[in-house]
Sequence to fold (579 residues):
Amino acid sequence: MKVSYGQRLFICFLAIFALFTLGVAWFERAGEREYKTRALEERLDAYIGTARAISKRPGVNLPRALDSLLFLFPPELRLTLVDSAGVVIYDNTIRETASLENHATRPEIVAARTRGVGSDTRVSTSNDREYLYRARLADGQFIRVALPNDIRVRDFLQPGNLFLYYIALLFIVVMTLANYISRRFGRSIRQLRDFTNAVDREGEIPFVAPVSRDELGEIVTKIAENYHRLKESKRAIALEREKLLQHVHGLEEGVCFFSADGSVEFYNSLFIQYLNTITDEANGDPALLFSDKAFEPISSFLASSVDSANRDAYFETRVNKHGKNFALRVNLFDDKSFEIIINDVTNQEKTRLLKQEMTGNITHELRTPVTAIRGCLETVLSRALEPDKERHFIRSAYNQVLALSELIQDMSLITKIEDAPQSFQLEPVNIPDLLADLRSDLEISLREKNIRVTWEMPGDTRVKGNRNLIYSIFRNLTDNAIRYAGNDAVVRVNLYREDKRFYYFSYSDTGVGIPDERHLNRLFERFYRINEGRTRDTGGSGLGLSIVKNAVAFHKGTIVVKNRAGGGLEFLFGLPRES
Fold:
């Protein structure tokens, strides 16, 4: 059975106070015994004094005189007179003193010879009785009295038990108080132990109410309060850490944190994926980068920053590997730990190159109408022309301005679709009605080329989208047919399939199509032209089909193009139906 702290404390109190009580009791009883012994010796000294007074009388018969005193003494008192040589002169219990041994060596006689008085307790050799002896040196001889050390004498010398009862009662009271104190103290310790055990088990720990109002209770309460505050802080930190880890795992960048000695502390899965893409050997250990040549700039930067007082806290470099572009960044922290971030910038790089290409294309497309406008105007301003020729150059400049305006509008529409799709409002759009409006708007152009536009679909075919963008889809496809399909072509728009979410349309013409099908996959690229010279003759900004693709993508659809079996092009695309 395990002894509790309170029980051990009580045992300590018990041992201390028991030792103290026993010491006090022993000291008191020893003192009382000494006091009674001294009182008895004083009585014996009085008997000796009486005998001495008789023995000092001149011419007295000493034995007879001493015998006359015996009635004054207790009956059991033994009176002995010993000369300076130790010879017994008189003994009231033994008449034949000549037979007694010499008493010079008796302890009480020896002590009396030295100090004038002596005492001893022993068994007499003359009658085998135990006596309490008391001897005194007087006038060159020793007067000795003795009392039998019987039960009466022992009872007299025995200390009383009243103080013992008192000290026992006091001990019980003190132990009761000690038990109360130790139990209160033990409860506080036990409560603190239970609290620490609950902490070790990492269970839910209730608030600890103090078992006492003293300093120990306050300490226990403060420890509990501080622990609960620490627990709440730890829980809050763990929550924030979990949020941070979720954020890091959700990043589109590979992140790895390292300690000051280069040990890996944390990384997300994307970091390993990028790392294995860059390195020559697949491995799940992020520390592999320190031994790979592709990461030598990072290793050099870290090595140069270890002992540098004015070290840089940031470093960035680029790595091209396996057709992908990666941006590598290093952030150094104050405690010399650091993080390495790997970001796949392949798409950004492609976008950058695409923007450069688009900028070049825009510049090229703008240069043609601007140069034409400038040439026409310079001719009109620098030469005296006939009215008909002057009007011809002005009209040519005007036509170029229209082409330039169309280019700017098309670029603006594409940019708006890509960068601000939220600005387009969605509404139900009736496709047959929209096609009717389109045919009416292009009536003149269609008549010039003798092109017919027909459609086959229910009259209530409605899609959910932006009317202007859907109109631009069919408008640009029709403009493309007018420019390239040739005379007497037929344009057909059919609803060839539908499901719960989409209507699927077919837009085809009976023109010449594109004999070299390698160009089909690039028709939707901006400014892409199969025949540059032909496009300039027929006009157009080169952005029409790019607008079509972006408008279809805005409506969560896809579009493909193919050559028809009977000639011409066919575009297949889907638009979301009205719910």
Q: What stands out?
A: The CA atoms of residues 427 and 465 lie 5 Å apart. Confidence is low (pLDDT under 50) at residues 533-538. The longest helix spans residues 5-55. The chain has five domains: 5-157, 162-241, 251-344, 349-416, 424-576.
